[in-house]
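Project channel, design review

CF: Before we commit to the Liquidambar formosana constructs, I'd like one complete example in the thread so the newer folks can see what an input/output pair looks like. Taking Cysteine protease.
RD: sounds good, go ahead.
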Amino acid sequence: MKGFRERGFASRTSSTDSPNTSPAASVCSDPGSNGETNCSKASSWSGFLASAFSIFETYSDQKRAVHSRNNNGWTAAVKRVVSGGSMRRIHERVLGQTKTGLSSSTSDIWLLGVRYKISPEDSSSGDPHSTHGLAEFEQDFSSRILMTYRKGFDAIEDSKLTSDVNWGCMLRSSQMLVAQALLFHRLGRSWRKPLNKPVDRQYIEILHLFGDSEASAFSIHNLLQAGKAYGLAAGSWVGPYAMCRSWETLARCKRVENDLEDHSLSMAVYIVSGDEDGERGGAPVVCIEDAYRHCFEFSKGQDDWTPILLLVPLVLGLDKVNPRYIPSLGATFTFPQSLGILGGKPGASTYIVGVQDEKAFYLDPHEVQPVVDISRDNLEADTSSYHCNVIRHIPLDSIDPSLAIGFYCRGKDDFDDFCSRASKLADQSDGAPLFTVANTHELPRPVTQNDMLGDDCGVREDDSFDMVPMSDPEGYAHEDDWQLL
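CF: and here is what came back for Cysteine protease:
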């Protein structure tokens, strides 16, 4: 069975629902009613089918000299099933029927700090492009950089894995968040993907940084290397906290390797954690003194303040998010500094970029695409695999309670504005803040576990250090495997 699974890694074929299949954006709802298990089922079924086809094709290659005609005919028949409607119907049975069409809600949509107003007349017209707000939202959504599973890259160290299918979704989700930070930093929040070539050089350079080889600064190869101290390993799933710490380590390593004028990640990285007694003990604290220190160290003493990336890993419940946190989670998307959320269903990470009412819009890394090598000088490169026109959403209260929120502050004024908004949000949280803000580590009594418990939910110790082996069929961490950091 182990060999069966390993062959599935090497030969996993792409999903029938390509991230760029629709010329106009469509909305897909959360697949099925059993949201806690559908993503895991999808992974298991897709891995099984891919592995089965892999074994069949290997067998065909070995016997082609003897049974060429019979095997080729059967292979062609199977491939027609895979590429045709039959396989799509299989996926729909496993994942749930895909629903298309834009929501009839007239509520505002917030996408990474930008509000899109939807009028009742436009929403009821039936034409998704008849409303200026919706059309602009679609263009903004499709301009966000998408990172998905890839196959065919160089093997990761000694693992012999040439694909991250079934285990790399958290790494890909984190790459998306950091990529948006670089887009905002280099090209501004108003940037939209180019319709014509040549494209922006800065845009191509950002994509190059996330290529799938050790030569690319922020490849999964280098992320895994940087995250070894936090348990990252090829073939295993990792949680948001370890992922954030791995980015901190990788950014520090690249800063040491490069000169000050040649930063790959041209911003300080600040992981917002618990109080002064450790990584836990209450709501994380954005310490202004710490942020200043990170900026000063990043500039090697040349500037008091620099652009800064804040990553806030959180655990907001046991099996589901405590309902008391839902309003605050949605409100973070109204911050101009918003970079979204690393989250999703248990064992299936996604990148959440926006909200409307109780819905969370996300980019899905669980598409399998061939590896793409984009040179930093190729302004004519095909970048279509890095964007998605299909707008998917899930209920905000159904996401995994272990998550991480990202923010990007361009300068001191931007950071001060963030702190003001965050403090106001904490004051309005009815005793359940996502995080708080303080000038120094001399803090009042932190919010305790009892303060944060809901009627049927509690705050668990972060299990994001635990590695979920691929042999776990459901992709869940077991309760007795949870570890304190």
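RD: helpful, thanks. The chain is about 35% helix and 15% strand.
CF: The mean pLDDT is 75.
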